[in-house]
Specification:
The complex is a heterodimer of chains A (223) and B (518). Chain A has 223 residues and is α/β, with parallel strands linked by helices. Chain A has ten helices and eight strands. Chain A has two domains: 7-124, Rossmann fold, CATH 3.40.50; 132-222, Winged helix-like DNA-binding domain superfamily/Winged helix DNA-binding domain (Arc Repressor Mutant, subunit A). In chain A, strand 7, helix 5 and strand 8 (126-127) form a beta-alpha-beta unit. Chain A is globular, with a radius of gyration of 17 Å. Among the domains of chain B are: 34-153, no CATH class; 376-517, Histidine kinase-like ATPase, C-terminal domain (Heat Shock Protein 90), CATH 3.30.565.10. Chain B contains 16 helices and five strands. Chain B has helices spanning 12-33, 37-41, 55-65, 120-128, 132-145, 149-160, 170-174, 178-200, 204-226, 229-246, 253-276, 283-344, 349-368, 382-397, 413-432, 467-482; strands at residues 401-406, 438-444, 448-455, 486-491, 497-504. A five-stranded mixed β-sheet of chain B has the order 1-2-3-5-4, with helices on one face. In chain B, strand 2 and strand 3 form a beta hairpin. The radius of gyration of chain B is 34 Å and the shape is elongated. The chains are: A alpha/beta (223), B alpha+beta (518). At the A-B interface, helix 6 and helix 10 of A face strand 1 and strand 2 of B.
Chain lengths: 223, 518
């Protein structure tokens, strides 16, 4: 984890929510700027170069993924933590696949949010319990281990298309509300290892070209 | 067209012409409207419980008649709307003589949702419980064979039958409109004069056919002036294109050519028709009819198409407006009520949190899963069982439950036992653990279903369980082992409690998307 207090930009179209987050986070992070829409956010982030952008999934003129994509091209070192009230799987998956390092719901407690920001700033991935459930579901629906033989369009790297047993184990525990520390104790591994498993899941989620992943998200919506 | 062969008498030609007219008007109209009629079916979960849809009748037989989805337009998320009316459309017909049947359909009202002109046919169809297309065809046939009287009768019905959802008819409105009545009389008398003039020139059948239309015109004037705004807009749609056909603001060469050819065909065909009336040759009037019809189609074809298109668009707009009303009603019934409750309970943080969470879950399931929380799930699945546990525990004990479900399948006996055991474990945690939140995690795998109930509460020493909790643990355990499942309880003082439940699945109903893992 970085020693310094992470510099954070808030992107959310609700002014009340921004000031609430800013007030609650207090000294745990340094809020250097706020934006309320896609275009102002891109300009602000470009000029401030914060450590972490706390990004609402839904913005008035587009999705949070537009901000992520625009910034990723010019400032790859800026990290994004997606924040949403909706939990609609396809929104979450879209912003994660665009490059966000994590996703939390707006009902998260202040302490957990500050912790999540610190972890994203340090380069780790942050999954809410719901996102962990989505990912498990997505990869199970996409075939799961050993199911790739019948798949019509495997990814370039087939490893990207499935989770290892350990990764599934970690995700299950996250879905059950475990913290990283509790997971480490439960599985007799170090917190660092837990973090690397989650990062690896994030990488697969972002890089897998498996079209089932997107189709799954679309189907979830229809269920 | 079979009447063509009958001995020429006063009016048979009119019948022939009108037959053709009906075919030309109705076929394209029905075809254009056809696929979109499904929109009406999918207005979805009726959130305002009784919107007075007599619709189930008109929907089902209709939907079958109109087949292909070639022109199916993208209704916003039709998949979200669950067809819930269903059932046999004729199921509630009473037995008995036909004039006593179908009294359950409410009073006769003009149907504003499925109208072509005034909604009389659609209303009558819904009232009698028969196919609306059949009613329309019968209406047109009556209008033709009654020598035009049918048109006047239709206009009268339009005037006298109130629209759906309204108490007063247009006629009762029109009584208070002396200017409208004067205008109607003026139009009728003007038309009557013209008809008298034509009659004097010696053409009996045309005037006999046209006289009832004088009444229709007068009635239409009254409707025009006194109908509710949306119907007036509909009428304006009908007439505007006709005005532009007659006096186009920018008379292009194509329009001029079209009008010219139409005029020649009309005059030629009419002349042929008139001369043929005095001839016994059977095929010649047919030629005249063809010419007249072609002329009419050329003259009015684009107008018909536009009317048809406008009708369809207008209908779609009406349905969208209804959806908006639904959403407004939903927001009012649930969200605003909850907000009001929260304001009144502001001094009780736990109650506020509970209310907010319940509202959140309800809204979310309605928005993202298309379920109406007030309608129970018919097919219980693992996911719906978990949702139910979450709902019950949150509302009864005020403890938030974070539920995550991975995969899904239908419940059989042993899975029912699993869900019931999970429910018991969750209630137990809510009652005794003192935790601020309970995690509920269910995963459906091809071979087994597992549910984990976990809290970070006070926990307990499994060796020294108080009697009242032991009973519960045993009942959870018993439920599981009787069906071949397992239950593991992990806990320690200050460490929270974790109940892991696993139940093997019977080999049937694997979810197709996850089947490959076995």
């Amino acid at each position: 984890m970085s020693a310094a207090v992470p510099r954070v930009v808030l992107v959310d179209d609700h002014g009340l929510f921004r000031s609430g987050v800013r007030g609650e986070l207090g000294k745990q992070v340094e809020v250097v700027g706020e934006a309320d829409d896609v275009q102002p956010a891109i300009e602000l982030i470009g000029s401030l170069e914060p450590d972490v952008v706390l990004l609402d999934v839904h913005l008035p003129s587009g999705g949070g993924q537009d901000v992520v994509q625009a910034i990723k091209a010019s400032h790859p070192e800026v990290r994004f933590l997606a924040l949403s009230a909706s939990d609609a799987p396809e929104d979450v998956i879209a912003v994660i696949r665009a490059g966000a390092r994590g996703y939390v719901t707006k009902t998260i407690s202040t302490a957990e949010l500050a912790d999540a920001i610190r972890r994203v700033a340090a380069g780790d991935a942050v999954f809410s319990h719901r996102l962990a459930g989505f990912v498990l579901d997505a990869f199970a629906a996409a075939g799961g281990p050993g199911g790739s033989a019948s798949e019509p369009k495997p990814s370039f790297d087939p490893e990207l298309d499935q989770l290892t047993a350990r990764e599934r184990e970690v995700l299950r525990l996250i879905a059950q509300g475990y913290t990283y520390k509790e997971i480490a104790r439960e599985l007799y591994i170090s917190v660092k290892t837990v973090e690397s498993h989650v990062s690896s899941v994030l990488r697969k989620l972002q890089l897998s070209t498996r079209h089932q992943l997107t189709r799954w998200a679309a189907e979830r919506r229809l269920a | 067209m079979t009447r063509c062969g009958s001995a020429p008498n006063d009016g048979s030609d009119a019948v022939v012409v009108s037959c053709g007219f009906a075919v030309f008007v109705f076929m394209p109209l029905q075809w254009l409207r056809g696929p979109r009629a499904h929109i009406g079916k999918n207005t979805g979960p009726t959130l305002i419980p009784d919107r007075g849809h007599q619709g189930s009748l008109r929907v089902a037989p209709d939907g079958e008649v109109r087949g292909s989805g070639a022109m199916m337009e993208s209704v916003e998320h039709p998949e979200r709307w669950r067809e819930h009316r269903g059932g046999d459309p004729f199921g509630h017909w009473h037995r008995g003589p036909f004039w006593l049947r179908n009294r359950g359909n409410g009073p006769l009202r003009r149907d504003q949702d499925d109208r072509l002109v005034g909604g009389v046919a659609a209303g009558a169809a819904a009232w009698k419980g028969v196919n609306v297309t059949a009613v329309r065809i019968v209406f047109v046939l009556i209008a033709i064979f009654s020598g035009g009287v049918g048109g006047a009768v239709y206009v009268a019905a339009w005037l006298l039958i109130p629209a759906a959802g309204q108490e007063t008819s247009i006629a009762s409105q029109a009584r208070n409109d002396p200017r409208g009545i004067r205008l109607a009389i003026a139009v009728a008398s003007l038309l009557a004069l013209i008809l008298l003039a034509i009659g004097a020139l010696g053409d009996g059948w045309f005037t006999s056919w046209a006289w009832p239309q004088v009444i229709s015109a007068a009635g239409l004037v009254l409707i025009w002036r006194n109908a509710p705004p949306d119907e007036q807009a509909g009428l304006r749609h009908l007439i505007e294109p006709l005005e532009s056909t007659a006096a186009s603001s920018r008379p292009g060469r194509r329009t001029a050519l079209r009008l010219g050819i139409a005029a020649v065909l009309l005059l030629g065909g009419a002349g042929w028709l008139f001369s043929a009336r005095f001839s016994l040759a059977l095929l010649r009037p047919l030629g005249g009819v063809v010419l007249v019809i072609t002329g009419i189609v050329l003259l009015l074809g684009p107008w018909w198409l536009r009317i048809a298109r406008d009708l369809v668009l207008e209908r779609a707009a009406r349905i969208r407006a209804e959806e908006r009303t639904d959403i407004a009603a939903r927001v009012h019934d649930s969200v605003l009520q909850t907000l009001a409750l929260i304001q009144r309970r502001a001094d009780d943080p736990q109650k506020v949190v509970q209310l907010a969470r319940m509202q959140e879950r309800e809204l979310r399931s309605w928005l993202f899963e298309g379920r109406d929380p007030n309608q129970p799930d018919e097919n219980m699945t693992v996911a719906s069982g978990i949702r139910q546990i979450q709902q019950d525990v949150e509302s009864r004990y005020g403890v938030p439950v974070e539920a995550v479900t991975v995969g899904d399948c239908e419940l059989d006996d042993s899975l029912n036992a699993l869900v019931a055991a999970a429910g018991e474990a969750t209630v137990n945690a809510a009652k005794w653990s003192g935790a601020s939140v309970i995690s509920l995690f269910a995963e459906v795998e091809p071979g087994e279903v597992s549910i984990v109930v976990r809290d970070r509460g006070q926990g307990f020493d499994p060796e020294a369980v108080p009697e009242d909790r032991k009973g519960l643990a045993e009942s959870v355990h018993g439920r599981m082992t009787r069906r071949g499942g397992t239950a593991t309880v992990t806990s320690g003082p200050g460490e929270g409690t974790k109940v892991s439940l696993k139940m093997p699945r019977s080999a049937t109903q694997p979810r197709p998307s996850a089947a490959s893992r076995s």
